[in-house]
Amino acid sequence: MPQLFVGTSGWAYPSWKPGFYPAKLAQKNFLSHYAAQLNTVEVNFSFRQLLKDTTVQKWIAETPAHFRLGIKAHQVLTHIKRLKNTQDFLPRFIATLEPLMRAGKLGPVLFQLPPNMKADAAVLEEFLSTLPKAVPSAFEFRHESWFADPIFDLLKNHNRALCVAETEERVTPDVVTSTDFAYFRYRKPTYSPDERRAMVARIRELLEQGRDVYAYFKHEETPQGALYAVEVLKEFQA
Fold first, then answer.
1. Is residue 215 within 8 Å of 184, Cβ to Cβ?
2. Which residues does 112 contact at the CB level (< 8 Å), separation at least 6?
3. How far apart are alpha carbons 154 and 190 in whole angstroms?
4. Separation of alpha carbons 211 and 110, rounded Å
5. Domains of the chain, with CATH numbers?
6. Burial category of 188 from C-beta neighbours within 10 Å (exposed 0-12, middle 13-18, buried 19 and up)
7. pLDDT tens across 86-126, in order?
8. What residues have CB less than 8 Å from 56, skipping those under 6 apart?
9. pLDDT in the model for residue 170
10. Strands 137-140 and 161-166
11. Angle, nearest 10°, between helix axes 30-37 and 53-62?
């Protein structure tokens, strides 16, 4: 059965009290409380530092069996090397994810490319060929030149998802490239009831096609994104 995973990009926000976290909840207990409400989180600090085993083991212990941690790929891969000559660093990064894989808690790895990085099909194809098939991956392109059929076909051939991201400045075409899952990043600060109903309808359509769906709302100073996530997830738990 296809599964729906909904959450936010991060969880360690004291400003989410008391709207999402109880007023007196200690920050060390944030993740376990979060994981009782939502079933995935997108880890963003992995963009700047390699994950430590002690940290990962703590996350595994504090989350239920069905929980998934999506991991943002390290900036060395996406912003410094820009997908080129990653043969030394990529295995180091992947190795940090192995405890999550063994625990069955690894969500997709998000490769978010810089806004000024233009499409290069040859570079993408070479990088895709080096990615282990066992690591589910999504790609967020932020230069419009990537939104073209040859790029979508490359992702399809390697069963990698196009991250459908929407911000106030940019919306990624909603193109399904992976047979296994779809990946959404809802980055606008607010969503109207009609917009949220449209999200639910699109998610339901993808689930009916047999794909898992990962959907992440933007973290903000307010808990609004987390509350949207709870609302969307409940639509499928009734």
1. yes
2. 47, 72, 73, 78, 140, 142, 163
3. 33
4. 17
5. 4-235 (3.20.20.410)
6. middle
7. 999 999 999 999 999 999 999 999 999 999 999 999 999 99
8. 96, 99, 100
9. 81
10. parallel
11. 50
Degrees (nearest 5) of the Cα angle 151, 156, 162?
A: 65
Question: Can you read off the two tokens belonging to residue 59?
Answer: 């996350």
Q: State the amino acid at position 54 in one-letter form.
A: T
Provide the token pair at 203. 């998610």
Nearest 5 degrees, angle CA 151-CA 200-CA 46?
Answer: 55
Contact between 60 and 32 under an 8 Å Cβ cutoff? The reply is no
Instruction: Using the predicted structure, report yes or no on whether residue 214 has a pLDDT greater than 80.
Output: yes
**SS3 of 117, please?**
coil
16-48 residues labelled b (16+ CB within 10 A) or e (exposed): beeebbeeebeeeebbebbbebbbbbbbbebbe
CA angle 63, 67, 73 (to 5 degrees): 100
In the 8-state DSSP scheme, what is residue 27? Answer: G
